């Protein structure tokens, strides 16, 4: 006796309702990225170029996030794609992390190579461009902040904007120091600081995405405790083949075999297990197989 139970996610995921905010953040980022690149190359400011590169990852990252949401909205399961396209969001988050690793490495390399002979950078254009970039990042930050709590995909875009926001502040400080003191090392030093700032946050994002792709149990879920709770339900003799994983942000999935006593009512056991998983642990989509002890013997023959 088996049963699959779950609530529909017709909107594609928690991030779908934030689609207009993502679109606005994409437009803002693209416009100010062009401005920062233009001024950065015109003034030879590594700090400004690095901030523009971060903004490029914002644009690409938000664009991937938008694409992932549009794909997820079409994630009606089929006989081939039985879980739809929800994982597109996780892949987009991992892609964002790889972009950030690449940009941070580039900035560190360029900054270190320039420290020996830093070029003269005019402070005023850098300050003006960094101020414009800061305003743009503040707007994008406000647009994406709420959605970042619900979706790893939106969190990827949000972290890029956050890193770029801090980067814009750094560029502003660099330009101000150059403008007021003429100290040529301010620009490469700030470039190194921006690169070092983004790396730990990128690592966390990549780790979260890989945990989902490798189908690890969610970090806040104690699989052993759930196994024990299921085994303690009236009529349950044994619990085995328990798997809990994340399909995409906010969508936890479970499957398990419940061996029941000979006199147990399988339907009551099934209902009690569903209530336990959904009510106590927030796992709405659980596929549970209720089986007699004779049928459970086959499970011991499986190699994985």
TrEMBL record:
Domain of life: Bacteria
GO MF terms, alphabetically ordered: zinc ion transmembrane transporter activity
Limits of the Cation efflux protein transmembrane domain: 23-213
Residue span, Cation efflux protein cytoplasmic domain: 221-291
Any one of the GO CC terms: plasma membrane
Membrane topology, from the record: Multi-pass membrane protein
Sequence intervals crossing the membrane: 22-49, 55-72, 84-109, 121-144, 156-183, 189-206
Pfam family, one: Cation_efflux
Location(s) in or outside the cell: Membrane
Keywords in alphabetical order: Ion transport, Membrane, Transmembrane, Transmembrane helix, Transport
Family, per entry: Belongs to the cation diffusion facilitator (CDF) transporter (TC 2.A.4) family. SLC30A subfamily.
UniProt name for this protein: Cation transporter
Originating species: Amycolatopsis antarctica
């Amino acid at each position: 006796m088996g049963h699959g139970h779950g609530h529909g996610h017709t909107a594609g995921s928690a991030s779908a309702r934030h689609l207009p905010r993502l679109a606005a953040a994409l437009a803002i980022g693209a416009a100010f990225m062009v401005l920062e690149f233009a001024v950065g190359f015109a003034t030879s400011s590594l700090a400004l170029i690095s901030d523009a590169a971060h903004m490029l990852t914002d644009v690409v990252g938000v664009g991937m996030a938008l694409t992932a949401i549009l794909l997820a909205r079409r994630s009606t399961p089929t006989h081939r794609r039985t879980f739809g396209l929800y994982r597109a969001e996780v892949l987009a988050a991992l892609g964002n992390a790889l972009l950030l690793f690449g940009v941070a490495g580039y900035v560190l390399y360029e900054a270190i190579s320039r420290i020996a002979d830093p070029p003269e950078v005019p402070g005023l254009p850098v300050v003006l461009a960094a101020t414009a970039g800061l305003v743009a990042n503040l707007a994008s930050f406000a647009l994406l902040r709420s959605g970042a709590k619900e979706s790893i995909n939106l969190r990827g875009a949000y972290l890029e904007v956050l890193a770029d926001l801090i980067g814009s502040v750094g560029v502003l400080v660099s330009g101000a120091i150059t403008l007021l003191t003429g100290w040529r090392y301010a620009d490469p030093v700030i470039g190194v600081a921006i690169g070092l700032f983004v790396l730990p946050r990128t690592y966390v994002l990549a780790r979260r995405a890989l945990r989902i792709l490798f189908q690890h149990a969610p970090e806040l879920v104690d699989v052993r405790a759930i196994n024990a709770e299921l085994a303690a339900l009236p009529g349950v003799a044994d619990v085995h083949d328990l798997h809990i994983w994340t399909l995409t942000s906010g969508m936890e999935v479970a499957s398990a075999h419940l061996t029941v006593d000979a006199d147990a009512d399988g339907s009551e056991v099934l209902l009690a297990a569903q209530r336990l998983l959904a009510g106590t642990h927030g796992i709405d989509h659980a596929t549970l197989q209720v089986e007699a002890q004779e049928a459970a013997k086959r499970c011991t023959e499986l190699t994985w």
